[in-house]
From TrEMBL:
Residues 57-199 form the DUF305 domain. The keyword Manganese does not apply. Keywords: Signal. Transmembrane segments: none annotated. InterPro entries: DUF305_CopM-like, Ferritin-like. It comes from the Bacteria. Residues 1-24 form the signal peptide. This is DUF305 domain-containing protein. The keyword S-adenosyl-L-methionine does not apply.
C-alpha cells in the first residue's frame, strides 16, 4: 500500500467515526419510542373528541346524564339511610361508578357543541313512579322497609338505563358512546341480579 493510499484509508475511517458519533448523539436527545407513544396518546384523545356522532349519540348522552343523576340521588340517600351494610355498599358502588360516567358524557356534549338536557328528573319512570315521587317515598321510610323499597325502585331504574343503552347500541354512531352503552348494560344487568338476590333476604 502506498503512502497516499494509507492516508486516504485513514481519512475514510475518521469520517466514518465522526458520522457514527453524530448519529449516536442525536439518538440520545429523544427516545423515538417515547415520542411515538406521546403522539399516539394525543391522537387518541383527539379522536375521542372529534369522532363522528349522530342525533342518537347526543340524545343518549343527554338523557343518560339525567338518569345517572337520579340514580346517584337515590344512592346517596341509601348511603345515609339503609339499614344493612350490603345495601349501603351497593349504593356507594352505584354513586362511585356513575359520577365519572356523567363527567365523561358531559365532556362529549361540550365537544359536540351540545347543551345538557333540561327538564329535571321528571321523566324517570320506575314502575309508574317518577324521580320526585320516588325520593319522597324513600325519605319517609326506614329500616328494612327503606332497604326493600330502595332495591325495588333501583331495579326499575337500572332496567330503564339498560333499555336506553340498548337503543344506543342499535342507533348510535360514536364509538366511545357505544362502548359506554355496553358497559352500562353489563354493569347494571349484574347489579339488577344482585339486588334481586338481596330482596330475597330482607
Amino acid at each position: 500500500m502506498t503512502r497516499n493510499t494509507r492516508i486516504a484509508a485513514a481519512g475514510g475511517t475518521l469520517a466514518l467515526a465522526m458520522t457514527l458519533a453524530a448519529c449516536g448523539g442525536s439518538s440520545q436527545g429523544t427516545d423515538p419510542t417515547v415520542a411515538s407513544e406521546a403522539t399516539t396518546g394525543t391522537s387518541e384523545e383527539t379522536a375521542a373528541v372529534d369522532a363522528a356522532h349522530n342525533d342518537a349519540d347526543i340524545s343518549f348522552a343527554q338523557m343518560m346524564i339525567i338518569h345517572h343523576e337520579g340514580a346517584i340521588e337515590m344512592a346517596d340517600l341509601a348511603v345515609s339511610n339503609a339499614a344493612t351494610g350490603e345495601v349501603r355498599s351497593l349504593a356507594e358502588d352505584i354513586s362511585a361508578a356513575q359520577g365519572p360516567e356523567i363527567e365523561k358524557m358531559t365532556s362529549w356534549l361540550e365537544a359536540w357543541g351540545q347543551e345538557p338536557a333540561g327538564g329535571g328528573m321528571g321523566g324517570m319512570d320506575m314502575g309508574g313512579m317518577d324521580q320526585e315521587a320516588a325520593m319522597e317515598e324513600l325519605s319517609g321510610l326506614s329500616g328494612a322497609d327503606f332497604d326493600r323499597r330502595f332495591l325495588e325502585l333501583m331495579i326499575e331504574h337500572h332496567r330503564g338505563a339498560v333499555d336506553m343503552a340498548e337503543a344506543q347500541l342499535a342507533d348510535g354512531e360514536n364509538p366511545q358512546a357505544l362502548e359506554l352503552a355496553q358497559t352500562i348494560i353489563d354493569a347494571q344487568t349484574t347489579e339488577i341480579a344482585e339486588m334481586e338476590q338481596m330482596l330475597q333476604t330482607i
